[in-house]
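Page 47, continued from p. 46.
Same chain as before, 122 aa.
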Amino acid sequence: QVQLVESGGKLVQPGDSLRLSCVASGRTFSSYAMGWFRQAPGKEREFVSFISWGYNQYYANSVTGRFTISRDKAKNTVSLQMNGLKPEDTAVYYCAATSKAELTTTSEADYWGQGTQVTVSS
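Result:
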């Protein structure tokens, strides 16, 4: 199995930047995609971004141009650089991994991290 551990969530102000990191350990597959989802209070968990084994990047419309996903295969990590944060970005952010080629829905995830809280408020 794969274990995912996220870090980096904080309380920040609108317009600030924040970088989230996720470290994968255990049995990992060379072909898996990794990504980020988020869940605000009372809302469904939604797709934010994912990156393929070939480093192709995909983003939800709400974060395109503001967030950047990256991965370091040697370190088994995936990061999410968040710029120009808005109050609507407030949520628990979850790292996810899959043996599939894409990861845009929660049903495609095989593994989840514990979540890290990001709060954007003035």
